[in-house]
Design a protein that fits this description.
CATH architecture of the largest domain: Orthogonal Bundle
Number of helices: 17
Bound molecules: 1,4-dihydronicotinamide adenine dinucleotide
Structural class: alpha/beta
Number of domains: 2
Largest sheet: 8 strands, mixed
Strand content: 5-15%
Distance between the termini: 38 Å
Strand order of the largest sheet: 3-2-1-4-5-6-7-8
Number of strands: 8
Order of helices and strands: EHEHHEEHEHEEHEHHHHHHHHHHH
Amino acid sequence: MNKQTIVGVIGAGTMGSGIAQVASASGHSVKIYDNSKAVLILARQNLVSSVDRLVGKQKISGEEGESIKGKIEWVNDLAKFADCGLVIEAIVENLDIKQKLFSELENIVGDDCILASNTSSLSITSIAAACRKPERVIGIHFFNPATLMPLVEIIKGLTTTSETESKTKKLIDSWNKTTVLAKDTPGFIVNRVARPYYGESIRIYEEGIADFATIDWALKEKGGFKMGPFELMDMIGNDVNYTVTETVWKQFFYDPRYKPSLTQKRLFEAGRFGKKSGQGYYDYSENVVVPEPKRDHTLAEKIFHRVIAMLINEAADALYYGVASKEDIDLAMTKGVNYPKGLLKWCDEIGAEKILSILSQLKEDYSEERYRPGVLLKKMVKEKKKFYS
Ligand code: NAI
C-alpha cells in the first residue's frame, strides 16, 4: 500500500468522517459510504466546514484544503469500492452487522484489499471469522476526534497475517499517526488500561470519601491529569463510557476487576450522558454554580494513590499477558488519552513496592478480587526490578 492506494471508508458518522479526512489529507483518494443518505449529506457539509475552518485558521493552505475536499468521493453504492486497496469500517458497534458487511465487501473488493475495522470493543478475530480470507482482516482503532488524536492501535486478529499487520502499520505511520501494536484482547490497550481511572474514582465517590469535584481536583492536582475522571466521563459521554466498561467486563468473563458501577449505569438509564445531554455527573445548564472541590491535600494524595495504583496494576497486567510492549502501553496512554506519563514509567518513579503495598492494603480491607495485585508487579518487587532500567 502507498499514496496511490484508494482508501474506502464505511460509515460517515463521527469516526468515519474523521478517518476519511485524515486519509485524504495524507494524499489518498478516498471513497466514503453510509447506508443513510441523510448522514452522508450532513457528513459532507460538516467535513467541508471543518476543512474550511482549518484554512481560515491558517493551519493548512487553501490549496491543501481544496485537495482534501476534492479527493473524497461520497458514494451511495458499495460496488464503487471495487478498486480500493484498503477499506476501513466505522459503522455501528454490532457484531452481526459488521460480519454481514465484511462478507459482502469480500465479493466487491480485489483479493489484495485489506479490510479493517475501527471497532472499540469487538474482537477482530470474530469479525474476520465471517470472511473467506480472514488473513487480510485487521483492526485499525482511531481515537476521537480522529483528525486530532495522534494514536492509532493496530490489532492483529488470530487469523491476520504478519504481512497484513506490517503493511497496515507502515501505511498508518505515513499518515503522521503514532501507531501501537495490540493483541486482540478486550479493550485492546487504552480501553482496557484506562478502566480504573473511571471505575476506581466512582468507587471512591460511592464510598462517600469525596465528591466528584474533589476527586477531579485531586487527580489533576496530584497526578497532573489534564481532566479529572468525572469531567472526562461527561465529555466522552456516560452512554459510550458505560457501554465500553460493560463490554470489557463481559468479554473478560465477568472478571470483578472490570465490574461496571451502578452510579454510572443510573446516569446512562436517565439519559444523563454528560455535556452532550446537558447533565451528567455535573450540570451543564446556564448559570449553574460550579461545585467547588474540598482542597484537602492529604485526602487528595490518598485518592491519587488509590487510582494510580489500580491503573499501574492494569498496565503491568497488560504487559504480562502480552497485550503490547511496555513502550507501546506507555505510548498508548500518553497519546490516546493524554496521560501526563506512561503508567509503567510512572511505576518506576513511584516505586513498584509502594504500588504493591497500596493494592495489598486495599485487597485486605475489601477482600475483593478487584484489588488483586498482578503477578508481574509482585515479581518486580521481589526481584527489585524496574520496568525501564
Ligand atoms: P456513529 O453512530 O457516529 O456512526 C456510525 C455510522 O454508520 C452512522 O452514520 C450509520 O448510519 C452508519 N451505518 C450503520 N450501519 C451501517 C451499515 N450496515 N452500512 C453502512 N453504514 C452504516 O458511530 P461512531 O461513533 O463513528 O462509531 C463507529 C465505530 O467506531 C464503532 O465501531 C465504534 O465502536 C468505533 N469507535 C468509536 C469511537 C468514538 O469515540 N465514537 C472511538 C473509536 C472507535
